[in-house]
Amino acid sequence: MNGMTSMAGTRCARHVEREAVAMCARCGDFACSACCAPNEAGATYCNECLETTALVTASRGARLLAQIVNSAIFVLLCTPLIFLDELSAEVGLALTTGVGLGFLVLIGVNIYLLATRGQSLGKLAVGIRIVRTDGQPAGLVSLVLMRIFVPQLIQVFCGIFSLIDSLSIFSEDSRCIHDKIAGTIVVNDDLQRARPRAF
Fold first, then answer.
1. Averaged in consecutive runs of 10 residues, what is the pLDDT profile of the chain (199 residues)?
2. 101, 95 Cβ separation under 8 angstroms
3. Gap between the Cα atoms of 90 and 59, Å rounded
4. How many CB atoms are closer than 10 A to CB 61?
5. Residue 183 near residue 135 (C-beta atoms within 8 A)
6. At what angle are helices 60-78 and 89-117 packed, to 10 degrees?
7. Nearest-CA neighbor of 186 among 51, 62, 69?
8. What 3-state class would DSSP assign to 187?
9. Closest CA to 54 of 117, 112, 134, 129
10. Is this structure's pTM higher than 0.85?
11. What is the DSSP letter of 196?
């Protein structure tokens, strides 16, 4: 059963006559093969916890839309800079300063959302979030270091990495390479029983 093996010396919390094969990732109870199952991300839960913690993987379309929203915010923030040549030096400096401050605010807001909700502004708008494969919050260090910094570092040495990373969303589990590096998945921003994904 998805790699589950007997846990010698442990008994199922609900069927003491049966040997446990896994420990629930949420409540910590030992469970036999009839009392547990992996969620869509592969983490094992007892049947009771699975009902409330099953993750619904975000569709590829939702992830694309979130990226479009993030990019649109960036473009809108940069748009005033196209008028720099038509402005005086003083106004141009003020405009550049304002855009720079806007970027700092944007970065701050995204860091706050990632730390507290596992979301960028785009993901918040679309209603999806980043979690660890066991459904727990990913943590800011993992999100920034492993999901953003490490892939960017790889990109420096492998110019086509970003393209390969993006295309890997079409893998069977819909996880990009940066998801696998960070041990994360992108899910709908609600905990529901897993259902078929669209697109």
1. 59 90 86 83 77 76 95 94 88 93 95 92 95 84 89 93 92 90 88 38
2. no
3. 47
4. 12
5. no
6. 150
7. 62
8. strand
9. 134
10. no
11. P
